[in-house]
């Protein structure tokens, strides 16, 4: 019998965007918890989603699938996704399947957020209805 570590997911906000701290064993049994956390994320274009894996003890193919699902959700929202504090055993597996070419890896969340300064949302100040022919609707 293996010594399983319960999965804990903590979501917090950084100036760059949300950080998911994933601790414990991420496998077929626990992956629905991460799926739920991912589905609850509110993402805004230009943010950075950090998946902090410092406390991850184990990750199987279900976990890898969810890391990709988080990335796909982020891409749809115009958000970058990075991995922070990836344990050596997980980094090795991610490298074998080529995901070290998909995700940027950082030594910790602080380094990840420092490398991606917050993006200010700039309001569109282009005047509308300037009277040009392009702004007029033909009747």
TrEMBL record:
PANTHER family the UniProt entry points to: ANTI-SIGMA FACTOR ANTAGONIST TM_1081-RELATED, ANTI-SIGMA FACTOR ANTAGONIST TM_1081-RELATED-RELATED
All residue ranges annotated as the STAS domain in the record: 7-116
Annotated family: Belongs to the anti-sigma-factor antagonist family.
CDD domains: STAS_anti-anti-sigma_factors
UniProt-listed Pfam families: STAS
Protein name from the UniProt record: Anti-sigma factor antagonist
Signal peptide: none
One MF annotation (Gene Ontology) recorded for this entry: anti-sigma factor antagonist activity
Source organism of this protein record: Streptomyces avermitilis (strain ATCC 31267 / DSM 46492 / JCM 5070 / NBRC 14893 / NCIMB 12804 / NRRL 8165 / MA-4680)
SUPFAM superfamilies per UniProt: SpoIIaa-like (SSF52091)
Segments of this protein annotated with the region Disordered: 117-139
InterPro entries for this protein: Anti-sigma_ant, STAS_dom, STAS_dom_sf
């Amino acid at each position: 019998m293996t010594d399983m570590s319960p999965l804990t997911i903590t979501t917090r906000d950084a100036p760059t965007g949300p950080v998911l701290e994933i601790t414990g064993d991420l496998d077929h049994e626990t992956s629905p918890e991460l799926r739920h956390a991912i589905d609850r994320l509110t993402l805004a274009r230009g943010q950075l989603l950090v998946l902090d894996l410092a406390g991850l003890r184990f990750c199987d193919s279900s976990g890898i699938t969810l890391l990709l699902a988080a990335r796909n959700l982020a891409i749809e929202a115009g958000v970058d996704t990075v991995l922070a504090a990836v344990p050596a055993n997980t980094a090795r597996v991610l490298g074998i399947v080529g995901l070290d070419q998909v995700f940027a890896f950082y030594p910790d969340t602080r380094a990840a957020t420092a490398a991606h300064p917050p993006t200010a949302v700039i309001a569109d100040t282009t005047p509308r209805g300037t009277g040009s022919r392009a702004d007029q609707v033909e009747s």
